[in-house]
Amino acid sequence: MAITLAEAEQILQASKAHATQMGLIVAIAVVDPRGDLVAMIRMDGALWRTAPVARGKAFASVAYGVPSADLMARADTPVMRSLIMMEQGEIIPQQGALPIMRGQAVIGAIGVSGAAAHEDEEIARAGIASLS
Amino acid sequence: MAITLAEAEQILQASKAHATQMGLIVAIAVVDPRGDLVAMIRMDGALWRTAPVARGKAFASVAYGVPSADLMARADTPVMRSLIMMEQGEIIPQQGALPIMRGQAVIGAIGVSGAAAHEDEEIARAGIASLS
Amino acid sequence: MAITLAEAEQILQASKAHATQMGLIVAIAVVDPRGDLVAMIRMDGALWRTAPVARGKAFASVAYGVPSADLMARADTPVMRSLIMMEQGEIIPQQGALPIMRGQAVIGAIGVSGAAAHEDEEIARAGIASLS
Amino acid sequence: MAITLAEAEQILQASKAHATQMGLIVAIAVVDPRGDLVAMIRMDGALWRTAPVARGKAFASVAYGVPSADLMARADTPVMRSLIMMEQGEIIPQQGALPIMRGQAVIGAIGVSGAAAHEDEEIARAGIASLS
């Protein structure tokens, strides 16, 4: 059971609106349970690196089914380091991404990059809130 | 001079509508002149690989400023092969992507993957047509 | 808005003159806002590794819009480590590079390698000073 | 015995002047006998890819001590393909680079990218001609 594109687009628009309201410029990525991109946007002026970082945070979040902030403490465990290496850096255990749930199931994740990490997470949360 | 997110979103929606009308399921990526993602969507049911392939075609198109179909004849030249290797495969010289112009300037490219290559290109063209 | 080649060449010559005055042998790289090379020189006797390191520092500096010295504290954060891995090591968060500004805009960066890190940075600064 | 930076800079300026005279926009790289960069420039408006391609052609030329055009016929030999793979694509056996000689010795190479391959080579030749 995976997030639909319609849901992902709704989340992206809500997150973008929230970022704009906060005066922030970010990239926002929504991934499916496998960590693959469903949809993403990079706001005008956001640096190139925000796109892969937003996706990397979302990938980390969905790979564990928890907010990526919760993974920071284990960023240096051998498992995490090897997993990151296997994926050539594309998993990023850093605050700014949240899993997207349908009931008890993780159906995807949203990751944000470009602002302070706690702002990235707030923007992600605003996107998810639009679903309910 | 790069494509704006608003333009990229408009293109994506038009391409998606055209794909739906054709009964096709694809991923669609819009990149800036450097080949970095500006926005992308993957339609429900499109395989994971369509996302990186759509972006890879767009990257190829924008790197040469021509439709990616025009690059197929030189896919085996030493320059193209090395460039692809340097970019770890992320440049894909295969039909399905078109440069996006503003006057004479290449401001980005759109790449599509998931259908037959000529259908991918038709979907890309429909997206660009929505800009004018 | 990117640095011009004429500006980059002027910076390189000023940095080289400053290095010579200090009795130091270095490589100096100037990159555009995306981190791509605009111009570089490696002084006679500077080891091969100084060339990619100079560019790597400049890439790090421009990717964050700050002196690369400011990035050393976060060299071990998950984001930085993953970004470096994604770029196959070509981003180097170590002192010796400075962003190049035009007004408020980052138009590129200069990176230096071959001397002590603080000397590298001094040589970079001398190059930028020649612009004004 | 390697090319000096002063020689490399003279070659770059002569090649740049020749390209300008031809109305062409290119990147030009000078490497030492090991294939490592000594100096490079990318002219305003030349795409990012011209920088690594110019260097890759120069690397190929100096690795064999012949014009890179002479390597095109063996681009598909197992040795060349493996060598390119070992260097992750950074050796490019395509026209546009020439070895730089001092007497009988190869002291470096110049590679050009951005125009038609035979124009790239002409620009390279103009640079070398300035040395004598």
What this model shows, in words?
Chains A, B, C, D: It holds the Pfam family HbpS-like. Chains A, B, C, D: This is Heme-binding protein. Chains A, B, C, D: It comes from Entotheonella factor. Chains A, B, C, D: InterPro entries: GlcG_carb_metab_protein, PduO/GlcC-like, PduO/GlcC-like_sf. Four copies of one chain form a homotetramer. Chain A is an alpha+beta fold and 132 residues long. Chain A has one domain (5-129): Beta-Lactamase (2-Layer Sandwich), CATH 3.30.450. Helix content of chain A is 42%, strand content 20%. Chain A contains four helices and four strands. Chain A has helices spanning 5-22, 50-64, 78-86, 117-129, and strands at residues 27-31, 37-42, 97-102, 105-113. The first copy, chain A, has a four-stranded antiparallel sheet. In chain A, strand 3 (97-102) and strand 4 (105-113) form a beta hairpin. In chain A, helix 1 crosses helix 4 (117-129). Chain A is globular, with a radius of gyration of 13 Å. Chain A binds chain B through residues 4-5, 8-9, 32, 34, 36-44, 48, 51, 88, and chain B through 4-5, 8-9, 32, 34, 36-44, 48, 51, 88. Strand 2 (37-42) of chain C pairs antiparallel with strand 2 (37-42) of chain D, so a sheet runs across the interface.
